[in-house]
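Standup notes
- DV: blocked on the single-chain target, sequence here:
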Amino acid sequence: MDLGLAGKRAIVTGASRGIGRAIAERLAGEGCAVAICARRAQEVEQAARDIAAGAGGVQVIGATADVADTASIARWVADSAAVLGGIDIVVANVSALGGTPDEDTWRLGMEIDMLGTVRTVEAAMPFLEQSVAGAIVAISSTAALEAFGGPRPYNAIKAAVINYVSNLATALAPKGIRANTVSPGTIYFDDGVWGQRKRDMPEIYQAALAGNPMGRMGTPAEVANAVAFVASPAASFVTGANLVVDGGFTRRVQY
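- DV (later): unblocked, structure below
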């Protein structure tokens, strides 16, 4: 299936590793020029080189940016648009992964997950309005969809991201810009949350593994596949959706 991504221009936040990097790799593999950011210069620059090499030389650029800093993220978006010649796709991926229910964690989650998404979208909006295939994808979580792990900032703020993007979808549809979320479940990679829990909290890891009907956790590449689809012209009539990528882990009926 041709997703129609060849020649499109995308920006992906938090893309030096894990899910963000897999998203950038998939988009570049489809022929999409990609700009990525992260906070560590050496990591993001190396990731950009590796992604470009793996995609046969498609344009991939990397730079440092902090989604908690309005000026930083605005500068990165504008610089990326200048180099790529515009922006068609925005993927907001960064998360503070706030688990402890103290005020500092709530504030950090709001700054990174919620306002970081808003800042990225707002900075990119003038460029998306000039695109013929504008698309926004924010990464949420299945933790936003059901009672999971107690009252945690991560759960509530990821739910707010879904609400924000759903309202964006309605507001931006007349402009031809689509907005969707993708909600991963238990996604495993060595230096990710579940990789850490496998090493440090094996009982929690095994319980989560046992609770997945597929008998395994997902991969960043499987999340990237979902993102690439909803971001692409192949999903031209899909907006306001929340695509769950969890192997059936959440116990609910989705309407």
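- Follow-up: Residues 103-128 form the longest helix (26 residues).
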